[in-house]
């Protein structure tokens, strides 16, 4: 299994961070490699919402990375499953109150199948890079004013 996780503390409330993460249209503000994203179906941030996204893949070629929100517990937990594309990991954001804001933990898991198993090291590097982007999220959220998170 490929696994990546990262944790940071952000000087914002769990509710602010959750609201920002739950709206997938905010992803390009802090995640590199997103060429396009749109809400395909459902209500933004709600269980069952599906976001279509085009990501920059190997060699710069576009790849699908559509995902569906599978768990939505405002201020606490937001989980998703990638439903299109060559790799289909699951991810979860866990939020908890910290002395100086909110501790945000991001966990990404993938069970490679078939020929995907041969690409394990490359997949693992990609997942580690994705988890490391929490630093970008922290920067974006801490530099915005309270009413600018949505």
TrEMBL record:
InterPro entries: Polyketide_cyclase/dehydratase, START-like_dom_sf. It holds the Pfam family Polyketide_cyc2. This is Polyketide cyclase. It comes from Pseudarthrobacter enclensis.
């Amino acid at each position: 299994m490929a696994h990546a996780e990262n944790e940071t503390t952000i000087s914002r409330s769990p509710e602010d961070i959750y609201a920002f993460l739950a709206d997938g249209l905010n992803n390009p503000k802090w995640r590199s490699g997103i060429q396009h994203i749109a809400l395909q179906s459902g209500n933004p941030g709600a269980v069952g919402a599906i976001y279509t996204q085009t990501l920059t893949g190997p060699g710069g070629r576009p790849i699908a990375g559509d995902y569906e929100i599978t768990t939505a517990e405002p201020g606490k937990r937001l989980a998703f499953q990638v439903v299109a594309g060559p790799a289909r990991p699951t991810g979860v954001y866990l939020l908890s109150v910290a002395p100086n804001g909110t501790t945000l933990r991001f966990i990404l898991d993938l069970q490679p199948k078939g020929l995907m198993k041969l690409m394990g090291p490359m997949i693992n590097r990609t997942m580690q890079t994705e988890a490391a982007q929490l630093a970008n999220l922290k920067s974006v959220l801490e530099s915005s004013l309270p009413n600018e998170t949505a």
